[in-house]
């Protein structure tokens, strides 16, 4: 402790900060996933296949994101966090604009990496500031509101992107200087990047709260040793959550292409309906996952939470199977069911992680969740689906089957790992519940 009294900023100031962070999370996920609705025109313009698109959606962003996350997290513990947030927002918006101007695949790949660097600054700095702005009994609610922006941001990328792409294809921006000469998908990326500059402007209105505790940097070997002692519980739990993320990113990236290629839906139709289904399902999933997992925890401890995650992941797998159905209504039903149940299972899993990890390592625990979700989910989910479509089925119209081939096994493996973590926890505690 610093030795000074624990004082928190005024309530309205703290909640304004959270509202700005929620908006920042919304914009960041919109930038992260905007390519999913631009797949077909981008491929035609640049002459690239599904595998190359998947690298732009996943690896180009994910690799630099996970590499930058840890040093930016340590910087957030030591430096001026608001400056880090403003700098990160400026970088990711610039990256999105550069994506719209990129002349070819590799320059677009590099621009996506710039987006990843900027977005890696958001979560650690925002979570640190929220921790200093709210007393312990309110931090969960504040963090939940912050995460809500991210939950809505992914579907919004498809919704907003679809509307903008449709307008650009209809010539709505022909009279705009410079923009009017560009391909429609480039116009969308530039508009998204420019509009995102509202985030650093809003961050200027946020006051950085006083740090309540001095951060003690434990040696890395000490941290690794403590985590390794619980590797059967923690490792299986982290991978179980990450496997759900494989499905999340796989569906967000390729279900729009299912609706476009198989059912000839227009971009604006995909954007509005896809965005509505996933946004509603994601919001309810996040809320229900927290509330119901707390209920199961009161009855069965940590193992109750993990059992609840297993049940939700089972239903999510059914949703992934429906994505391969031959009717758009069933595809949307599967998308909604996966989004709802995956959010429930992941939220309950993260709550269980917070229960079992040592109190002074919870921040590291959340960093590991983000690391695994990004590396496995965003890094592998879109690419695996594309590879099955191109090299397995050899038919772009089989993309729905490819989604099911990747995501259903991911859900089954997730269930098994939740069960292993649950069993390891019981063994560790000698048959006593957590």
Automatic annotation (TrEMBL):
PROSITE patterns named among the record's database cross-references: MFS
Cellular-component GO terms for this entry: membrane
Coiled-coil ranges (or none): none
Cross-referenced InterPro entries: MFS, MFS_dom, MFS_spinster-like, MFS_trans_sf
Record protein name field: MFS transporter
Regions that span the bilayer: 14-31, 51-72, 84-103, 109-130, 142-165, 185-206, 232-252, 272-292, 304-324, 330-353, 365-387, 399-419
Organism: Sphingopyxis bauzanensis
GO molecular function: transmembrane transporter activity
